[in-house]
Amino acid sequence: MPALTYYVGVTLDGFIAGPRDEVDFFGLSDDFLAFLADEYADLQPTHLRAALGATDAPLRRYDTVVMGRRTYDPALVAGIADPYAHLRTVVVSTSLPAADGPVEITAEPPLDVVRRLKATDSPYDVCLAGGGRLAGAVSAEIDRLVVKKYPVVAGDGVRMLTRGFAPEAFGLEDVRTFDNGCAVLEYVRQ
């Protein structure tokens, strides 16, 4: 049964984007980009895979990405219908029309979507690419967190996870640091 990984970039104060969905304050470096291309090529948008030289990299761990409408919007604005063309892409949205093309758009309850995706017999895992409300709605199904913690404080914006108070324990599995000051922390549900 596939696991659900929440793969997310976050500020030191817990934001995944600014108040108007800004993400341009997350600094990158050659060292960090090489790590993403090597360890997480599956989870890079198709255009970034090309820029990283990983276009033909075979899938290693993930074959499905699920996201909310606000995470999907920047691709649409840029004229990209499927930002993860190398993966099955599922967008959970009540404001976009349902679709079954290269991108599945569904108004199903988020927990139902995630449970359906996890109930397959795929040997690959499912990635939750965002956003904070969607992560909050499906947090009970998150098996693994891959948190790219950037050395910046935003002060306001989109929280990593938005929901009521309900502590859930995760155990630290790995930490890697990079020359841009970013730390990648991998956690598994306890």
Question: Would you write up a description of this structure?
Answer:
By secondary structure, this protein is of the alpha/beta class. It has one domain: 3-Layer(aba) Sandwich (Dihydrofolate Reductase, subunit A), CATH 3.40.430. It contains 5 helices and 11 strands. It has helices at residues 30-39, 46-51, 69-77, 110-118, 132-138; strands at residues 4-10, 15-17, 62-68, 88-92, 99-100, 103-106, 125-130, 144-149, 158-159, 170-177, 183-189. A hairpin with a 2-residue loop joins strand 5 (99-100) and strand 6 (103-106). It is globular, with a radius of gyration of 16 Å. It comes from Nocardioides daeguensis.
Order of helices and strands: EEHHEHEEEHEHEEEE
CATH architecture: 3-Layer(aba) Sandwich
> Could you say which overall geometry the principal axes of the C-alpha atoms support?
globular
- Taking pLDDT < 50 over at least 5 consecutive residues as the criterion, the unreliable ranges are none
Q: In total, how many domains does the architecture comprise?
A: 1
Assign a percent range to the helix content. Answer: 10-25%
In CATH, what is the class? Alpha Beta
According to DSSP, the number of beta strands is: 11
Nearest-integer average pLDDT: 95
Widest sheet: strand order?
5-6-4-3-7-1-8-11-10
Total of helices: 5
CATH superfamily: Dihydrofolate Reductase, subunit A
Estimate the strand proportion: 25-35%
Protein name: Dihydrofolate reductase family protein
InterPro entries: Riboflavin_Biosynth_HTPR
Organism: Nocardioides daeguensis
